[in-house]
Design goal:
By secondary structure, the chain is an alpha/beta fold. It is built from 9 helices and 10 strands. The two termini are 30 Å apart.
Length: 239
């Protein structure tokens, strides 16, 4: 399926938002742009798909989850997908010694946002885990545990990282959809759907015949991107 042939059902608009990584300020700004966009022209049905990686690296992971869990945009449906950073955080909460890699990949910023002391040594990991478990509000737990791995609307598939080329969708693994990079990014095969994804930072939104990459590195660039899909149309909103 060629990119220009992909379309959504009539009356549906989808906003697909790339990796937020603790930038609650940018999320607020992008939500404002979406609200203004909807006031300008309101579709029959609107869905906002968040592509994962809400936590780590940026300064306010707590604030991002709070907004997504309790302060959703009015009048729209919301789908929140699992990113590899949420998966690492959940693994740390379950088994800290086996998942300490999370702290080296931005988890320290998440701890700070929950006012949990960053461990100074390996033997402090269990204490850190217990502190984080105590600091997480119940609705933040619920949010993290209920994240979806994929969503599909019309001719588009929404996942965090991508899919394994050549493998039917019903055989794709959770790990592939939240972690895959080169095998997916370098592939030119027809996936049967245009895959909208984040996970891999691009300077500009990456438009390929079989995929659209929308992770514009918000935590470091200040640019958070929403891909807006409606009918056969494709456009962007950016901070």
């Amino acid at each position: 399926m060629l990119l220009q042939e992909a379309r959504l059902p009539p009356g549906l608009r989808v906003y697909a938002i790339g990796d937020i990584h603790g930038r609650a300020d940018l999320l607020d700004r992008l939500h404002g742009l979406i609200e203004a966009d909807l006031q300008s022209t309101a579709p029959e049905r609107c869905v906002v798909v968040y592509l994962g990686d809400y936590v780590d690296r940026g300064p306010d992971s707590h604030g991002v989850i709070e907004r997504l869990a309790r302060h959703k945009l009015a009048g729209v449906e919301t789908i929140t997908l699992l990113g590899n950073h949420e998966a690492m955080m959940l693994e740390f909460l379950d088994a800290p010694y086996g998942a300490s890699l999370w702290l080296a990949n931005g988890g320290d910023a998440t701890l700070a946002s929950y006012k949990v002391r960053i461990p100074a040594a390996y033997d402090e990991l269990l204490l850190t885990q217990r502190s984080l478990r105590g600091a997480l509000p119940r609705h933040h737990w619920h949010f993290l545990e209920k994240l979806l791995v994929q969503a599909q609307f019309g001719d588009y598939l929404f996942v965090h990282a991508g899919i394994k080329p050549g493998l039917p969708l019903d055989r794709q693994s959770r790990e592939q959809m939240i972690w895959i990079r080169d095998a997916f990014l370098d592939s030119e095969v027809d996936h049967g759907l245009v895959v909208v994804h984040g996970h891999t930072i691009v300077h500009e939104v990456e438009w390929r015949p079989n995929r659209i990459g929308v992770d514009t590195g918000a935590y470091t660039t200040g640019r958070l991107t929403a891909l807006v899909l409606e009918g056969a149309g494709q456009r962007l909103l950016q901070t």
